[in-house]
Amino acid sequence: MERLLVLVRHGQSEWNLKNLFTGWKDPGLTEQGVTEAHKAGQQLRDLKLTFDIAFTSVLSRAQRTLDIMLEELGQTGLETLKDQALNERDYGDLTGMNKDQAREEFGEEQVHIWRRSYDVPPPGGESLKMTAERVLPYYKSEILPRVLEGKRTLVSAHGNSLRSLIMELENLSPEEILKRELGTGTPIVYRIDENGGVLSVQDLAD
Where is coiled-coil annotated (predicted)? Predict the structure, then answer.
């Protein structure tokens, strides 16, 4: 029995384009983001992958990316579960601020710490550690059981919620996961063993 899990970061959003901290705000996809979502669906179709269930966040950029991929796959109407556990990291007081502006206001080093440390949250927001503490229980209770049943599973989410999953799947340290860059609209295909371990990983950005 094949156990398949595919993770996709949403296509470029309007706030990605403007270099703003986005978090739980809900901007839509740019034209480029729509194109990236179509390409992701085409890549999955080229691999002849189909899915039994999908998961996404409650934010529209992830949901629209998923919808476009499913259109490309001819799987509109696929059973989809939406949960805020898969939302992007909450950037708190930085939300909506231009990243260059934030560096000017708080200093390059402080903003770097907020963005690239594992357990230091920005004011009023979440660290990656805190993000993982909501993502991983949801993964273990809702997503992984479906994968282990043999349901081919597609997850459309966000850079930091997906980093939390990748850290778990690939047994990465906090230092290693912080260096991991995830492109927008790029599928990562995992084949999973009966215990939830990774047999193989294929990053379609490569």
Answer: none
pTM of the model: 0.96
Amino acid in position 153: T
Between CA 37 and CA 104 the distance in angstroms is 33
- What is the rounded distance in angstroms from the CA atom of residue 76 to the CA atom of residue 79? 9
- Answer yes or no: is 11 a known binding residue: yes
- The edge-to-edge listing of strands for the beta sheet with 153-157 is 80-82, 53-56, 153-157, 4-9, 187-192, 198-203
- 152 is annotated as contributing to ligand binding: no
Q: Is 38 annotated as contributing to ligand binding?
A: no
Q: What six digits make up the tokens of 126?
A: 């979440």
Whether residue 205 is predicted with pLDDT greater than 90 in this model: the reply is no
Catalytic residues: 10, 88
- Residue 188 is predicted with a pLDDT of 98
Task: Name the 3-class secondary structure at 29.
Answer: strand
Question: Are the C-beta atoms of residues 67 and 41 closer than 8 Å to each other?
Answer: no
pLDDT in tens, 141-176: 999 999 999 999 999 999 999 999 999 999 999 999
* Architecture in CATH for domain 4-89+128-203: 3-Layer(aba) Sandwich (3.40)
Q: Is the pLDDT of residue 206 over 70?
A: no
